[in-house]
Amino acid sequence: MAKVTILGATGNVGVFAAHTISEIPYVSDMLLVGRPGREDFLAGCCRDLSDSFAARGTDVRLSYGTSVLDAKDSDVIICTAGVPRRPGQDRNDLAFENAKIIAETAETIGRSSPDAILFLVTNPVDVMTAVALKYSGLQPRQIFGLGTHLDSMRLKSLIAHYFRVHVSEVHTRIIGEHGDSMVPLWSATTIGGIRISNLPTFSGLPVQEMIEAVRTSGEAIIRDKGSTVHGPGEAIATLVKTILGDENRILTVSSYIKSEIHGIGDVCIGVPARINRDGVFPVPLSLEENEVVGFRESVKKIRKVTADVMERLEEVR
Which residue among 149, 161, 178, 230 is the active-site one? Predict the structure, then answer.
């Protein structure tokens, strides 16, 4: 059985993620960590969640704290802490402010929880994954970000709706930045095991409209209801279950690549990775030429933002 810690547990995503993660059969203990001064809210969350566990018949021990040090002995530490994106903001607008939070948090985790797997949700997630990798001192396999996993699920849903099939029949991936330069892998998209381009109706698929819908989905949700909650929360639980269940599933997350995709590497970015109890392992991949071009552009963008953030961090630390 496993202990899972959620940092930033007083935020909307953190609270909902706690509820979804509690349904994972491998989880025996859950720690909610928030800012000092939020103890009453954390206590209320624990009571409310405990009531839901009783109604559901779930046996998970809940606790809360205000220090990252409380996460000691955790198997998985999920970081949702940071400044949330506001309407009209690009994810990269948050980079430096959130990087300061993640750098300090990662340093503490590296010292106090050296065997944990650190899962970043904080945006811009590709950059935050790189910051956490640098400042924690943990191995690359131990650190990953939500990346384009949710983007891939959003595209999957749109394709299923268009072809009028169950969503489980669709397999697709988006790689690259969790943001505007994301790259859909149509060459790796199948429906019922059939490559999507082999279906006669593929020619009528509104490809650009679909990708634009995925790119702007988060912004639209934030504009309409203030924040994205349920999509990220369920995606987080899927990834935690994949780790703790040692499932060896291949999911698309932000992780450090050396040269696995056409020799492109030395960056944290969304790529397919095999995920199990030992961590996250990027899968070597060959792409269509137009996909390689798009991925290179996405990597170039993330490298620049990451380098800028790292330079500014060095100046203030």
Answer: 178
